[in-house]
């Protein structure tokens, strides 16, 4: 026996189906993240680029308030802020809707220190371009968080911090050179991230003197870097080398706007 459905009944079933699709297509998700960049547009609207502990890179859109009673304030999204966010997550969307946000770890020194603040601007710019598009990587997330907590807490000058951070970040991005292959007098091939006993057949390499400085830098950490003395000029040459190194291995890694300001620090 044929089964006929009226037009009205069909529409009712159709809208129920669509409603269920919408319910399952989006869900509220809560996670910790670090702010990498914010872009204000329109009337008190903002796109915030985050790197999270469970989702990797994620971009959210929100409306912020300038009033004292507003729930979401612009100050929450200063680059490198460590926050907890709640988003209306849609799997097939490149831009998620932010529902709520709060500070997880407040900085007590970085925003007020004339050296740490511009250094943090540089770190946020490097990190944004280095990790955009990255999937979940808890070890990478923990490294970034630990680094920023260390920078906020340290109470002595740390002019080599950005260099050690950039070299440490390379470990999680997958192009850290193998130091076990290094021999005194080797050159460093920037393209292939390896040490060579003879000069490379291209221009993207470091001579033996510069290569030795990269080895030295790779063996530093935040606690020991104060023991390694560098001139202002050497420090700036090394950061240029590291930026070139990133550019060769990260597609679309651009010239950094914050680099010139950074180079003026600790002169």
Q: What tags apply to this protein structure?
A:
single chain; 3-stranded antiparallel beta sheet; 7 helices; 267 residues; alpha+beta
What does this structure look like?
37% of the residues lie in helices and 22% in strands. The strands form 2 sheets. The protein has a 5-stranded mixed β-barrel. Strands 7-6-8 form a 3-stranded antiparallel β-sheet. A hairpin with a 3-residue loop joins strand 2 and strand 3. Helix 2 packs parallel to helix 4, helix 3 packs antiparallel against helix 4 and helix 4 packs parallel to helix 6. The termini are far apart.
Estimate what percentage of residues fall within beta strands: 15-25%
Helix share bin: 25-40%
Global structural class: alpha+beta
The string of secondary-structure elements, in order, is: HEEEEEHHHEEEHHH
Number of separate strands: 8
Helix count, DSSP H or I runs of 4 or more residues: 7
- What is the overall silhouette? globular
Query: Could you give a short account of the major beta sheet?
Result: 5 strands, mixed, barrel
Given as residue ranges, the uncertain stretches (5+ residues, pLDDT < 50) are 17-24
**Overall mean pLDDT score?**
87
| Main sheet: strand order | 1-2-3-5-4
Amino- and carboxy-terminal Cα gap: 90 Å
Give the SSE layout.
Layout (H helix, E strand, L loop, with lengths): L6 H19 E16 L3 E8 L3 E8 L18 E9 L5 E10 L10 H16 L6 H16 L7 H13 L13 E3 L4 E3 L8 E2 L1 H11 L13 H18 L9 H5 L4
Parallel strand pairs: 3-5
Antiparallel strand pairs: 1-2, 1-4, 2-3, 4-5, 6-7, 6-8
